[in-house]
Amino acid sequence: MPGLPWRGFLAGCFLLFFLAGILAANWVGQEKLLQYGMLNEYYVGQLAYAQLDAGNYFGYLLKQRMRVFGLSALLAYTRFGVPMLTGVIGWYAFSLGYLFVNALVSMKFQGMVLVLLSVFPQIFCYAAAYYGLGNIVFVKSAQLAVPAGVPKAWRNPRLFMLLSALMCMVAGIWLESYVNPVLLTKYIRSM
Hints:
Blueprint: H1 6-28, H2 30-36, H3 41-47, H4 54-75, H5 81-118, H6 122-138, H7 157-190
Helix pairs in contact: 1-5, 4-5, 4-7, 5-6, 6-7
């Protein structure tokens, strides 16, 4: 797809699905969000004192996140790469929009901060991983550059992008399982 402004296309998809998540949460209604929402003060208060085995949590997240990422990486090399990337980014954006409204209804400003903390700092690694897949899907191999000093056997630009994306994904999972719970627990205890 030469000439397609793919970064703008994916950013537009993100914003469109984010808006759809906001609209869906508003369509569900405030009563249902308060009744069935996971962001009520009782459940959030329970998280402040829950004990988490970070190693087991890492294993669980690795299995869950790598299923989606692995399928996405495989589809990135096929003609289904564009719908796959749009779908994955759309699902994350929809979920985030829905969660923001749920947090706003349930816990006001504190809930918004809680949702932002729940995706920090791993969101940067996940975004970099899917950006790498976007390079595989949208950019021709001749336009991709491999940094100097990379051994000749690893000079395939698409393979280099895939391995870089995989490393970003594993780093994000590590941050989500070891760093993120500490940040969330400190914030919840300070509320």
